[in-house]
Here is the input.
Amino acid sequence: AQSVTQLGSHVSVSEGALVLLRCNYSSSVPPYLFWYVQYPNQGLQLLLKYTTGATLVKGINGFEAEFKKSETSFHLTKPSAHMSDAAEYFCAVSGLITGTASKLTFGTGTRLQVTL
Amino acid sequence: DAGVIQSPRHEVTEMGQEVTLRCKPISGHDYLFWYRQTMMRGLELLIYFNNNVPIDDSGMPEDRFSAKMPNASFSTLKIQPSEPRDSAVYFCASTSGASEQFFGPGTRLTVL
Here is the structure.
């Protein structure tokens, strides 16, 4: 069984400030981890993913996340927030089983607000 | 590629009516997923298909919901009869093997 916990349903940062969105997961198998972003009235768009290999993953729009197995975390960061980053962000976990796709389990989402 | 295509983008209907949502996955993808998003419950997986065969429908809320995938390029999610609590945004997503899912723009359903 898998689960995802996103700490903080709303996060507000000033433009230019560090963005940190927290995600902790639980998985009985080696996890694949994802961050998706959803802009208003749109579908979900992949920001980045961790499968295997390097634990620091870089994604689009300057975002990155680090897989920390010991902490069961996959926090999303961006050094400097931009107004266009305002959106809802979802962390998700997928438990890969023998090479077949597995369903994603999503967190409840974190709404990022960026202020001037 | 045009991405995952969903239609209609918006649907307003009255309680008791039948609603059909449509999805065209990305060509070559062999997995298709239907999700529902509400403020109260977040993103919920309703059902998913592999090679047009339903694999897991444990998320389908009740018998009023049904989904089909008659071929690799088309799937439907049907609600009959619809109820106000079915109001939500319904997403379709597709993927190929062990990779990220690609989401469509969603269908916003309002049941009056």
